[in-house]
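To: structure subgroup
Subject: Chain for Friday's discussion

All,

I'm putting the inputs and outputs inline so they're searchable in the archive.
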Amino acid sequence: MSASAPAAKPDPARSARRGLTHSRAVGLMVLVTLMWATAGVVTRQLERAASFEVTFWRSFFTLLAMVLILGAWRGRGLWRSLREGGRHLWISGACWSVMFTAFMVALTLTTTANVLVTLATGPLLAALAARLFIGHRLPARTWAAIAVAGAGIAWMYGAQIGDDGALAGTLVALCVPIAGACHWTNVQQAHASGADVDLLPAVLIGAAVSAACTLPLAWPFTASGRDLALLGFLGVFQLAIPCMLSMMAAGVLKAPEVALLALLEVLFGIALAWVGAGEAPAPTVFSGGLLVIGALVANEWLGWRAARGQR
C-alpha cells in the first residue's frame, strides 16, 4: 500500500503486538531494561564531552533515529499525527524533553546508582499526581509505599548534604520522575476526554525540544570522534529503539508487570556501572534504594493480587 494513503496504512507497532505472546513480551521488556541500563556505564567512557553537550548529542541522535524509523513505519502519517496531535501530544513531548535533559545532566553530576534509584520513584509519583490532579483514589498500600519510598529518598539526600555535586545531581535526577508523573497525568486526562496521546511522536518531540534547548549551552563542542560514537549509541540503542520496543511490550503486559520489570533497569544499570566503570554504590544508596524498590515491588504485587482476586 502506498504512503499516499496513510489513513489506510497499518501501524507496524500494532501489527507486531498482535504476534507477541506474553512470555515474549516479558523477554522483550527485560531486553529493553538492559538497553536502558547502558546509559551510566557508556557515559563514564566519554573522553571530552561533558554536561549539556552530552545531553545535546544524545537527544540529537535520538531525534535522528526516531525520524528515520517512524518515517519508514508510518510514512506521511507521522507528520499528520504531529500536526493534528493537539495540546496533549505537545505537553507530553515537553515532559519527555525534561526527562531526556535532566537524566543526562544528572549522570554527569552524580553516580549512576543515585540517578537510577531516584528514577525508581516514578510510578509512585505518577500515582500521587493522579490523586492530586485527576482525583484518582489511592489505596492504603499505595500511600504506605509513597511514604516508605519518600523515606528512602530522604535518607539518600541526607547522606549527600555535605557533597554539593552529588546532592545537585540527585535533585536534577528527581526532575525525571516528576516530569514522568506529569506526562502520565496528561495521558490519563487525554484519555478521559476521549483522545489518546500517540506516545512515539511525543518521544520524537521530546528529543527535538531537548536538542534545541541544550544546543546553545553545549557550544562550543569538545566531543571527540569516540565520544560521538558512544553518544550515537546512546541515542539509538539506549533510547530510541528501546522506547519503541517498550511500547510493543506494554501493549501485551499489564501495567503492574511493566512497572515491576522496569525496575530491572536499576539493577542492571548499577551492576554495569560497577563492573564496567568501577562505580561502586555508597552504602546509603543501597539502604535507601532497598526502601524505594521494596516499596514499589510491594505496592505493585499487592495491586496485582487484588486485581486477580476480583476476577
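Points worth raising on Friday:
The chain has a mean pLDDT of 82.
Residues 83 and 89 are 10 Å apart (CA to CA).

D.
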